[in-house]
Specification:
By secondary structure, the protein is mainly alpha-helical.
């Protein structure tokens, strides 16, 4: 979608240049430059001189994605609720209705984070299209860090906004996904489930142009907190004491949350008493 937004912005610039009396140099740049790169080749001053703002170039760029986000996240929320109820107790009608309303608010809050971040990232890419280079894993096809989506999903799960989405932070605390926020924790409690730890998920190494071995070695590793000894970082990169998904640009790692029922059957209670 970001590439599509850059393409739309370039087309708007090309359209704006055609009827105007601009220099031959500007016309040559527009004619010879791939559409997504027109803004970066012209420069922000030339774009402004054409009477176009960044907001105008990116207007409505992510409307379609917003509709898809709402559908995708709503489905994932329903699946998460079903999985939790399957392991624990069914929710009361009152709890279920309250949960549905909260999830709707969470989805909207998550989109607000994602939409704003995509506009900010796209505005930057208009004039600086090159990907940042760094150590760590990398997929050359990505122009936005997966951490951008993870930040939005964290908020959609009822979690806090942890800062600049996709940026390198110093702690994994508060990081998460759709099934890690306060709303889901309340769902765990309503279903009489207790939270356990997490499991690191590296995913398919083949999706990386450049894998990151320390993260790869954590695949399937269980941990109880974001400062678990298993996550300790002995190196200078990333600049964090403990590894966590999105601790550097390009990281595609994630994690799985676990839970276990705290409900005891009458037979289990009698056996313990005996």
């Amino acid at each position: 979608m970001l590439r599509h937004a850059l393409e739309r912005a370039g087309n708007r610039l090309a359209t704006a240049v055609r009827p105007r009396r601009v220099s031959q140099q500007v016309k040559q740049i527009v004619a010879s430059t791939p559409t997504p790169l027109i803004a970066s080749r012209l420069g922000e001053a030339h774009v402004a001189a054409l009477g176009l703002t960044n907001e105008a170039l990116l207007d409505s760029a992510f409307e379609t994605l917003e509709v898809r986000w709402d559908a995708w996240v709503a489905q994932a929320q329903r699946q998460g609720r079903a999985a939790i109820v399957e392991e624990g107790e069914d929710l009361s009608d009152e709890d279920d209705e309250a949960l549905a309303r909260q999830m709707e608010r969470d989805r909207a809050a998550g989109w607000a984070v994602l939409g704003a971040t995509l506009v900010r990232e796209t505005t930057t890419r208009l004039y600086a299209p090159e990907q940042p280079t760094s150590l760590g894993e990398r997929d050359s096809s990505l122009i936005v860090s997966p951490g951008v989506l993870r930040e939005a999903l964290q908020v959609a799960g009822g979690g806090p906004v942890s800062g600049s989405a996709g940026s390198t932070a110093t702690s994994g605390a508060g990081r998460g996904g759709l099934l890690s926020g306060q709303t889901v924790r309340e769902m765990f409690r309503a279903a009489a489930l207790r939270e356990l730890g997490w499991v690191w998920v590296y995913g398919d190494p083949g999706t990386r142009t450049r894998p990151f071995e320390p993260h790869m070695n954590l695949d399937a590793e269980s941990f109880d907190s974001w400062e678990d000894e298993a996550l300790a970082n002995p190196e200078d990169f990333p600049e964090t004491d403990f590894y966590f998904p999105s601790d550097h640009f390009g990281c595609q790692c994630t994690f799985a949350r676990d839970g276990a029922s705290t409900v005891e059957t009458e037979e289990e209670t009698e056996d313990e008493a005996a």
